[in-house]
Amino acid sequence: MGALDELTGRRFGPFTLEVSAERVHAFVTAIGDDPKRWSDFAPPVFANAALFTAAPVFLDDAVVVPFTRSLIHSEQRYTWTRPLAVGEMLEVSGTVTSVRVRGPLHFVEFAIDTQSKSGPWMTGSSVFLMSTEAAAASAEEAEPPVALRPAFGTTAPSALPKAGEALPSYPCGASRADLVRYAAATRDWNPIHWDHDSARNAGLSGTIVHGLLMASWMANAVGRHVPGVDPLRELRVRFRNPLRPGVAAEVTGSVVDGDDDTAIDVALAAGDERLVTGRIRVTP
């Protein structure tokens, strides 16, 4: 099956993540959320910072590095059990739970769990598509100006729509400078998000927006309509196509009934092209 299969069941960590006020503020600012709302607690998608407390150690493992010539974050799931207070000290561990091979591609599932003295906070799993072969090259595009950023989050928060109704649209997008700020806030320093040559070597047309930053915008689009500091129960997304910096995108969604909560089917698109799709569960 290949060397990656040797890592199945291997645990990385635990690693420590301080949920400091400074780091939460930097993260909230980087994802375009409201800093006033998150002064005492971290937003649920601070899980991105937790994931990249453990994931870089896995990705830098000597066995894994040859398979990162082509690296795609395909799917992400998070489940939360409680709010995360500023000042907590998290322990984050990651485990390779499965490796599947399809031709040159390796589908690697990487699960994380987090806890502090207050108990478990969040669990999650990522699916990475990895290969020793470079992806087919896209046509090269020039990088946009560093500060070029589309309109962002201009709709006012309101009550969550009822089942069968549409979620208010949420405009979003990032500048190249935004991508560096997000990388600094999460430690997700994959160079395809800030270095043109690295993106080209990975087969991309140029730098691209972090998938988890797009997932954060989807969480913003839903969570801003749910009061309190514990708005989300579960997020599941699939990354389908990349978004270039400077390109305008939009989150839309529709509300459906759940058994014990409310589910919102969400999509992030640029024009007619869907880039990320998923479902978010909340307890209003």
Q: Can you describe this structure?
A:
By secondary structure, the chain is α+β, with helices and mostly antiparallel strands. It contains 5 helices and 12 strands. A hairpin with a 4-residue loop joins β10 (249-257) and β11 (262-270). α1 (21-31) runs antiparallel to α3 (176-186). It is globular, with a radius of gyration of 18 Å. The model has no long low-confidence stretch (mean pLDDT 94).
Strand arrangement across the biggest beta sheet: 1-5-6-7-3-9-12-11-10-8
* Strand content range: 35-45%
Distance between the termini: 45 Å
Q: Quote the average pLDDT.
A: 94
Rg on CA atoms, Å: 18 Å
Number of helices: 5
Strand segment count = 12
Q: Shape from CA axes? A: globular
Which SSEs are present, and which pair or pack?
Layout (H helix, E strand, L loop, with lengths): L10 E8 L2 H11 L9 E2 L4 H13 L10 E11 L3 E2 L3 E14 L2 E12 L2 E13 L34 E7 L3 H11 L9 H6 L9 H13 L8 E8 L9 E9 L4 E9 L2 E10 L2
Antiparallel strand pairs: 1-5, 2-4, 3-7, 3-9, 5-6, 6-7, 8-10, 9-12, 10-11, 11-12
Attribute tags:
284 residues, alpha+beta, 5 helices, 12 strands, globular
Can you give me a brief rundown of this structure?
The chain is of the alpha+beta class and 284 residues long.
